[in-house]
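Sanity check. The docking grid for adenosine-5'-triphosphate depends on where the pocket ends up, so I'm generating a full predicted complex first rather than guessing from homology. Inputs follow.
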Amino acid sequence: MIDFKNVVKTYPNGTVALKGISLHIDDGEFVFIVGHSGAGKTTLTKLLLGEEKPTSGHLIVGDYDLSRIPGYRVPHYRRELGVVFQDFRLLPNKTVFENVAFAMRVVGTPAKKIRRRVPAILNTVNLADKNGSFPDEISGGEQQRVALARALANNPKVIIADEPTGNIDPQMSLEIMNLLMKINKLGKTVIVVTHERELVNYYKQRVIMIKDGVIVEDKVGGTYE
Amino acid sequence: MRRYNPFYFILEALKSLKRNGVMTFASVAVLMSCLVVIGGFSLLVYNIDVNLENFGVMNKIEVFSNFDAGAGELEALERDIRALDNVEEVTHTTKAERLAAIKKDYDAYEDITDEENPLSDSFEVTYKDNKKVPELEMQLKQLNGVRKLTNRYDLAKKIENFKNTVMMIFLWFLIILFVVSLFIIVNTIKLALSSRKREIEIMRYVGASKWFITLPFIIEGVLIGAVSAVISFFIVKGAYSVVTRQMGDMTQVITTVNISPYNTLILLGFLGIGILTGIIGSLISIAKHLNT
Ligand SMILES: Nc1ncnc2c1ncn2[C@@H]1O[C@H](COP(=O)(O)OP(=O)(O)OP(=O)(O)O)[C@@H](O)[C@H]1O
Ligand SMILES: [Mg+2]
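Predicted complex below; grid placement will be based on this.
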C-alpha cells in the first residue's frame, strides 16, 4: 500500500516540484505515471525510493512512514523495492549472472540461495541463455531485462521503473512492458513512469497524469493524449 | 537469515589498494615517516631521561675540599655543610675511595699509588629546593676548606632545555606529518570510493546497509595503518641498534637503553596510532564523499 497525503516537495534551490500530491496505490496494482518533461515524475519516484524526503505532507509505503524515516532505516526499506532506470545502470565488468547476484550478495543473501535464485529470475525475464555475457555484449532491451532481473532479485513488493523504455527501440519496449505486466500478475505492485503514449494507451491500465507538480487526471483504463 | 562473507570486505579492500597502488604507496610512506619520527623522538627523550638519572644531577651538588685538608678540617666542613638550610643529605667520599673508583673504570690510572693521589675529598650534597640552588652555592663557596663546586644543576638545566627543544620540534614535526598522513589517506580512500561509484550506487538502491558499503573502505584504512606500523617498527628497531652501537663505541659517558624488553609495547603503540590514523582518514573520506 502506497499513500501520498498532500505531499509537497520543494528542492533546496526553491523549485517546487510537487505541489500537494494525494494518491493511493493498493498492493498488486499496475500504475502508469505520465506527464510532460519537468512535471515532477522523477521527483515522485525519488520520494518513493527514500532518496528525497517530502517537504510537507505524508508518504506511507507499507509499514514505513517515509516523511519521517530515519536515515539508518532507509536501506531496510529499500529491500522492499525494486528499481529500474532509463540507463540500466549495470556493472560493466560483471556478467549478467553476477550483476543479478551482486544485488543479492550485498544484502547478505547466502551463496547457496543466490546460485539457486539467479537462474530462476533470469528465466522469468527470458535471459537464461545470456547469463555469462557482459553488458556490452547484449542489446539495450536485454540490458534492461537484466536490470529488471536485478530489481526482482531480492523479491521486493514494489517495482518502480522510471522511463524503462526510454533508451530502447519500440519493439523491445513492448517486450519490457509485457514483462512488467507479467511481474504485476505475479502479485507485485508495479509503477511505471513513461512518455510513450502508444504503450500507455495499449495496456489500458490505471493512468495518473501529473502536470506542473499536481495530479490532473487519475483514471483506470485511462489514455495519454 | 542474512549471511555476510568476512573475506569479501578484506578482498575488496585489497583489490582497491592494488588498483590505486601509487596512492597506497604514498599513504604508507607518509604514515610510516610519521611513526618513525614518533618512535625516534620518543626513544631520544627516554634516553635523555635515563641519562639524567644516571648522572644523578637532578638535585645534587658536588663539593670538593682543599687538597691539603686534614681529617679534622674535613669533619668540620661536613658539619658546616649539614648545618645549611637547603641541605637534605651529605655523602662524604674520601680521595682514596675516589681514586679506587677511577682505577676501576680507567686502566691508565692503574699505577698511581695512594701517595701520588692527585684528588681531593668530595661531598655529594643533596638539596631540597631547586629554586634556592644559587643561594646554596654561595653559602657553600664561603665555607672554610672548599676548593670548588661542580655545578651540575646548570648541566641538568641545559639537558632539560635540550629535551624541551627536542620535544617542541618533535611536536611540530608530528603535527605536520600527521596532517599530511591524514590528507593522503583521505585522498586514497576518496579514489577508492570514486572507482567503485557505480557499485555503491547500486548497493544503495538494492538496500545494502551503510556499514556494508563502508566497511571495505575502513578496512583499507586499517590495512594502510597496520602495514605502516609494522614497517616502522622494523625501521626504528634497526636504526636504534645501529645508533646505540655507534654511541657505545664513541663514549662511555652516555648510557643507551636496551629497548628489546619494550618490543611488544612499541609495536602495539605503532599499530594503535597507525590503525587509528587509517580509520580516521577513511571516516573523513566517507563522510565527505559518500552521501547516502
Ligand atoms: N535535484 C534537483 N534540484 C532542484 N530542482 C530539481 C531537482 N530535480 C528536479 N528538479 C526540478 O523539479 C522539477 C521536476 O523535475 P522531475 O525530474 O521530477 O521531472 P520529470 O517529470 O521527471 O521530467 P522528465 O520527464 O524530463 O524526466 C523540474 O522543474 C526540475 O527542474
Ligand atoms: Mg524524469
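Relevant for the grid: The longest strand of chain A covers residues 16-25.
Also worth noting: The helical segments of chain A are 41-48, 74-78, 96-105, 111-124, 140-152, 170-185, 197-203.
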